[in-house]
Amino acid sequence: MRQHQSPICETQLIPSALLHAILRTPVLPRHRVKAPRRTTVLEPSHHIEGLLESLVRSINIVPAEARAVTDRSDLSLPLQRIINKGTNVGMSWKCWTDKDLHVWLFVGGMLLGLSRQMGSPVLQVRQYRERGLPDTANWVIDRQANWRRCDAHDAEA
What we know:
- By secondary structure, this protein is of the alpha+beta class.
- It has one domain.
- Helix content is 28%, strand content 25%.
- It has five helices and six strands, in the order ααβαββαβββα.
- A six-stranded antiparallel β-sheet has the order 1-2-3-4-5-6, with helices on both faces.
- The longest helix is centred in the N-terminal third of the chain and has 13 residues, at 46-58.
- It is globular, with a radius of gyration of 16 Å.
């Protein structure tokens, strides 16, 4: 299995009840499993929002002094459109801004097929800044609440 370098500096633990609820998916054998041709994103839920926030906090990309945005109408129209497109296909979102009007918007959803194959929740996350889309990645959380990037190659291992 290929090792990935990830920007994880500190792990943000999520509540054990939430992790238990998400990890109820049975662990499937990882050998003889092929990557799915098509990915399915689950409907938005508080579980996915909790995972998304856990991921963002664990990779330390949002400054501590940034404030959370809970109402999409507080954002620019282009960012509102991104959120609407994501929520229309079952994704959740989390956003932060700072006093200098920098924006950190994360739109993501759980990839059901890949989560089952990996035996752990896998989020597909798109990160937007005030100038556009700098990063898109799949992230997997393990049973110790540690996040790491993953790709289709990980599912085949």
